[in-house]
User: Fold these one by one.
Assistant:
Number 1:
Amino acid sequence: MSVIAPGTLQCFHCGEDCPDEPVVFEAHPFCCQGCKTVYEILAQKNLCTYYDLTEKPGKTFSQPVYAPRYAYLLQPDVQEKLIQYKDETTAYITFFIPSMHCSSCIWLLEHLYRLHNGIVKSSVDFLKKEIRLAYNESAINLQEVVVLLARIGYEPYISLQDADTGVQQKASRSATYKIGIAGFCFGNIMMLSFPDYFAGGDLLDTPQLATIFRYLSLLLSIPVITYCAAEFFTGSVTYLKQKRLNIDFPIALALIITFGRSLYEIISGTGSGYLDSMTGIVFFMLLGRWAQSRTLGYLSFTRDYKSYFPVSACVIRKGTEAYIPVHELQVGDDVLIRNNELIPSDAVLLEGEAEIDYSFVTGESEWVEKHPGDMLYAGGRQKGAAIRLKLSKPVAQSYLTSLWNNEAFQQPQQTRFDYAAFINKYFSAAVLVISIAAFAFWMIRGQHATAWNSITTVLIVACPCALLLGATFTSGNMLSVFSANGFYLRNASVIETLGAADTIVFDKTGTLTRSGKLTTTFIGADLSGAELTAIRSVATHSMHPLSRSIDYALHTSPANEVKHFEETAAMGISAVVAGIKVKMGSPVFVEALPVKAHTDTRVYVSLNGEVKGYFTFENTYRNGLQKLIGRLSARFGLHLVSGDNENQQTFLAQQFPTGSDLRFNQSPEDKLHFIRHLQQQKHTVVMIGDGLNDAGALRQSDAGIAITEDVNNFSPACDVIMSSGQFEQLPRLLQYAALHKWFVGGSFALSLVYNVIGLYFALQGQLKPVIAAILMPASSLSIILFTWAATHIAARTKAL
């Protein structure tokens, strides 16, 4: 380290002005030891590419990081509240990072694993300013993770009170302070400007008093332009460094022009300037953004806490099994989890040997063995015999929603037109060209006041904020309508996919038929009480609709403990009960060969290697099936893929339109390949299944819909969870999704009308800047009202 001569140096890391004696390292000046330390960390890990993304992207570090401040994070009870999942080696946690502000922040935070080998991976949600971390507890503890983040300028916001509910408060008071200061200054400047509004200032007795008022206005405007409006300037500069324009740029330019012009007029004594307009612009813009964020926050709240998982859990109370809605579960409840069921909340394993698939949480497919007394985490899926749990935390459905949105189950979507990107790329540039042309036109004609007024008002009135609101609020309102109708979408982009779909592929069992409503008959040798008990005990542990039907048919027989339970998709289940080896499923699975040709659905049973017979089932189709298929066929190509045999082919052929492809005896792989084949023919495909054996097809499809009954059998690979009670509403729901593009187009048209009218007056210099600043949030409000009214009126029209 050395010291170089003072000068107008800027810190190489954060861009702040350096003191007279800057800290120097590797010929780079730094404003403090903190920034120099961060640069050393990045240089040691070959991460100096960070400085190529944007010039001076870092945060200032005048205060050193005091590691003992975070010692509380080593306490087990604190970690239990904050950590969302952990196994023997890896823990997962989500932090809110208030200082995240640009693309370089994203780049650095997603490369944390290069700063410390204990960081397994990290992913950033920039809109929420959240980072989701996986770290190796044997290499780095939670305190060290937070210290690492703080040392590089991204100290997380941690609230243990909020951690109790699984939600971290993200709201900052900074926006409220800025609105308050801007409103105070704007109001007082307006009051001081009253003499200039009337009779050109002649209402004042002395010219000196008018001068005092103008300088007081200038003094009041300084905190507005430097503090309240800072976000407009920083946003513009960040994008300009990346050689791009964003929606903040026209606003920032209008503020600079208005303030500069006012400063010149006041100092030169040639006028009173437009400080009332400048502060009004900032106040109304901040107020509009605050209203937008509050509305978006409400929509997000609705989406997080409505019954996103319209499923139940099996609770054991007084020795009796009862299904209750997941959101009614309480801490201490005794819950039964069967094979393929999802653990609804953090819990302690009471009975059984658990094989937990945590891929829903971590994206890793390796199963984890757990024993009685071990902690199990929300989002894990049991693979094997049923287990009993005691819930240790309340069900946080917002957390389950975040699991559903886990990147491990995100599928690449078809590239669609991005309205926001288009507007950011072209609209701001167009506004800049128009404003400069208007300014030049009036200056050439010698009307200088009109020229300045036109350039300012054009930049304000033509801000594309209202345009960008259209898609956002339309999607948010539609998500609320869908949720209220038992149709729960993974995210807003699924609406566009459903609206663009032209083909629907159905599964049969559990989808077209009512799960658990089959008439079940056993054909074969007489079975003893012990054998019936063994069969029912094994069937109880499976979530397949046929297993549930067998379980229901044998409900008078007791259920005993099973060992070595296994379930093979599309084949069958096996286990050992009281020394009896039970296998149930296809004839191949139970080795019941040869089997005579048959057309009915069968589940064969073998006990200790001897085939005893088979169960047959009479399908009960969902209400309104024929009407539903008739309505869907007017718009979609319809197909069927089923793992069952062809015994229902004649009936289903009468229900489906001519030309439909009805395929039976399909394995999960066959279903996936059929979906892929349709997509190769340029079809946008919606797959509708029960979420059990259809995970591959659901994920391969453009939009996968999992129908749920009274058990949580949906797949994390699906895009929509649909309550079975809403099956008849499917045509209306899909028609409603198709209206999305019209709602967005309508909001765009409304905003463009506003822009055209506003520009007409602005280009002529007839629109004062403060009026333009008021009209802008008014336009945003009109967009919000339009999208709300359009989406809800359409929902009523569709009887939703």
Number 2:
Amino acid sequence: MPPSKPNTARRREVRRNVRRKPANWREAVRQPHVAWAIAFACLITVVGSGLALLGNRTPRYHVGQVLQRAVVPQVDFESIDTRRTDIARQIARDQQPPVFVANLDYANALRASLIDLVQQINESPNEAHTDNAKHRLTPELIASIAERYIDQGQVSESWYQLTRDYTQAIFDRAIVLSVEDYKFYRAEDRRQLIRVHPDPGPGQPRERLQYAGSWLQAPLSGATDGNDWVEALRQNYSSLTLNVPFPPELRELVVSVVMDVNWQPTYVLDAAETRRRADDAAAAVAPTMSAFSAGEVLRPAGTRLALGDVQLLNAAHDAYLDQRPWAQRWLALLGLTGMVGLIAAGLWLYCTQYNKRATHNPWRGFAIASLILLGQGSAVAAALIWPSFLYGAVTFPVVFAAMILAIAYNRRFALAASAVLALLIAVSLDLGTAPVVVMLTAAVATVLQLNQVRSSSKLVLTGIWSGLATAAAAALALLAHRDLFAPGASPVREALRLVQDGPLHTFAAAFATGLLVQGLLPLVARVFNITTAIMLRELNDASHPLLQRLAQSSPGTYQHSLRIADMAEAAADAIGADGLLCRVGAMYHDVGKINKPHYFIENQGGGPNKHEKLSPAMSLLIIVGHVKDGVEMAREFGLPPVLRHFIESHHGTTLVEFFFHAAKKKAEATPDPADTPSEFEFRYPGPKPQTKEAAIMLLCDSLEAAARTLPEPTPVRLEQLVHTIANKRLLDGQFDDCELTLRDLAQIEASITKTLCAVYHARIKYPSDKPLDADTPPTPPAPAAATA
């Protein structure tokens, strides 16, 4: 008994034959793909409205721009007077006293010299007398020091305290500036300085504000040569010993030891701290505000904007937005949201009619919505950060979206979606006609070049040519919508500025987009779950493990796949379909025969037919099973879904005629009518081809096998065979689920006929040395045309 038809196939057959009532709008909304389309339209409306609201507050002007008309504020407002504010802050910065910190290295050196003297006396008094002869260290002084300041073989704490007090006295009174600092502050006419003491006394502040005159002692400032300067310094250090309880006989010794240390400035300028305090003082100055009245001309036409001008004009625009009545704000928000919503609704209505893959698969729809919003957000952000880069900022997202969608779907949808993105950007940034024309030019120039992307360099070349086309459009837009020259400006400089403002930016944006998409191509394929032409070329490599396994275990099937690949690719190219996809799909469509290769005629090699010992029902299970085995094997080897569809649909729901007739013949021998097989039970489970490429694959598979059965495959017979089988598949409803038209079918027939005639072309019979029989007439030589 033949196996029964699966329930899923029966349901599909019933749904196809039962006529449905047209659904009303409530039922249409309840459908999942319509609900997803509405959800994505709402997502774009909500997020896109927020981006558009932000875009309306982006700077309207940029440095170097030439005003085409005078700018007049609509409301009274106050703005920061940049020039006056900068002057006030510079004054505050200049009035900040410089900060000097103690030269701790010099202080430590002074203390160490005095401590080392007593330490040497403690360790070797005789050598101390000899080494310090220049300090007039007599035996009496050595004995006095040892008695007073050496306690149990160690320098006493009283001597340490004396050295600390003396160093503190030096840094309290004898302030000495370096010559460079002295000249600088005399030239700058500085009057006050901040001194940061290293070790202030109890109750003394660490920082002191002093006049510059008190930093230079009279003896030091009055010295004229080196000897006078040294003597003045010695007098200062000598006078300071009176403030410290040194014994009278040791004071001259202390001064001599201190003067023996290499002199350094006692205080040095702390440039970093001085700069920080000056910046803090400048930042603390409140901005100086200037009032402007409504109707007052802020800047006349022809003005070349500087930074202060840009800030003033943007402040006038922001003041107008902030001072609008609440009713006007809400109405403006409603209008902006409504415009974004209309654009989003148009996109998803287009998807429900012409790109149903985006609405039936929520992940694809979310990816498309995210791409549109990402492009809108990047344009708004770039215009906010670089106002002078406007044309490049709006070109980049449009070219990016056009490239991605042309690769993921088709050029028609890519053009529609990129046009929608251009409208969203125009609404968000309140652009005029010229930038919209530039964006549409970028979209068209990009989409027209992306029919098939078979190499990564194609994207770079697309970016270059799109950039050139967009640059030309930007140049024309700028020529038509702005004055080229500011009053009194150089024509050459203004022309260069024009090129930089528009064409150069757009070309750089398009070229950078091509490089970026080239690097992101694997990520795009994963996000949109697509198979690119580059991936197909890799899968078409004969060294692929699955193709190698097919060639080794099923050589006849492998050769059959090669012939179908040539036929399918030529037929697909004839109607403008994806020829590379057809070729790769043909190479993998029969991989399910690997498990049972000898049950298929092309692999039997003239040997016995294994089906002679099987019932038609069992043979049917084996023949039909190669489709299921092929799909499982494709999943095992990681083939993309688009190729798995070729495997599961290359027979559609066609009838397995040979075994159906064998079953009928076998049933005729039995009187029981229940044993009569049903045609429905001997059909492949399907599905039918969903794409033009899969339909071409189904037709080529049937024709290649049928052409091998012709005893004399002449061109006329081949043409009749192709037309007969094509009509048979058409009437059988195998092309109902794809977009194949009768015109396409006629072109496919012509292409397949041409390919089959090339395969089965006539050949001449070459002469042989074997003598002919007497009864056999000699074969006349073939005409020259037959050898072609």
